[in-house]
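From the methods appendix. Each design record in this collection lists the tokenized structure first, followed by the designed amino acid sequence. Records were kept in a plain field format so they could be parsed without special tools. The example shown here is representative of the layout used throughout.

RECORD:
FOLD TOKENS (265 positions):
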């Protein structure tokens, strides 16, 4: 990788139906570096929940936009892989503000992709009007064009997570694609039938969440998903290992082999 534009172009091509981009979400410089060096890793993605909790604040834009951009800069500067940033709702009240913040994110952090959400608060709560959500996606696209970086926009559809209808979810997904999204982050695809329906009815590539008890990664690839991420679950995995180790050591137990894991910035 030599330029930010090349990283953006690569990130886009890595979203392939049948050969999905797997992003093991990170939240700081050292997690970015460790994940980037794992065999098979081709790009990175942050998770806002993890980034926020690591700084002692709540998710759902507990960070200021300046803090969010700085967190992205730290991650992007630690590695040479393309980085997609969970940019929550854009940290702005209106589409113009989203556009300005996305421009800053691109120029100040080196990120080449974003997630942007269409809910007003949590994924299970009310959503923005479709017109407002579309305008925000369009503003993010315009910001990418203004910077000369072909930003990869992973537009999140929270309709099913919030108890909404399938038809509305699909309508929103296609409207976001028309507004400039590259991929639809479709929450609520709980089983293979819903994945198939989404792939049939949405006019573009689809990303989804993977996790323990969910559809196996190999099957998601076979169905035609283009990207799988894990959100804050990778932070949970890390904290669970730390908690188990603390309990073992406090009980004068055996030293876990992972204590010898070597790492460096």
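DESIGN:
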């Amino acid at each position: 990788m030599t330029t930010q534009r090349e990283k953006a172009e690569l990130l886009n091509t890595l979203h392939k139906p049948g050969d999905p981009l797997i992003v093991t979400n990170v939240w700081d410089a050292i997690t970015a570096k460790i994940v980037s060096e794992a065999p098979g890793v081709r790009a990175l993605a942050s998770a806002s929940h993890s980034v926020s909790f690591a700084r002692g604040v709540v998710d759902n834009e507990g960070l200021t936009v300046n803090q969010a951009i700085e967190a992205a800069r730290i991650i992007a500067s630690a590695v040479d892989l393309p980085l997609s940033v969970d940019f929550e709702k854009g940290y702005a009240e209106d589409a113009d503000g989203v556009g300005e913040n996305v421009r800053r994110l691109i120029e100040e952090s080196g990120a080449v992709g974003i997630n942007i959400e269409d809910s007003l608060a949590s994924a299970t709560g009310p959503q923005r009007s479709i017109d407002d959500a579309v305008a925000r996606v369009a503003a993010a696209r315009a910001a990418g064009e203004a910077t000369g970086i072909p930003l990869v926009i992973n537009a999140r559809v929270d309709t099913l997570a919030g108890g909404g209808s399938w038809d509305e979810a699909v309508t929103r997904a296609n409207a976001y694609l028309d507004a400039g999204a590259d991929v639809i982050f479709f929450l609520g695809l709980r089983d293979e039938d819903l994945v198939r329906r989404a792939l049939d009815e949405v006019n573009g590539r689809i990303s989804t969440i993977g996790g323990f008890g969910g559809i196996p990664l190999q099957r998601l690839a076979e169905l035609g998903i283009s990207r799988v991420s894990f959100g804050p679950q990778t932070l949970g995995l890390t904290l669970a290992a730390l908690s188990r180790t603390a309990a073992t050591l406090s009980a004068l137990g055996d030293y876990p082999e992972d204590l010898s894991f070597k790492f460096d910035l």
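APPENDIX NOTE: The chain has a mean pLDDT of 97.
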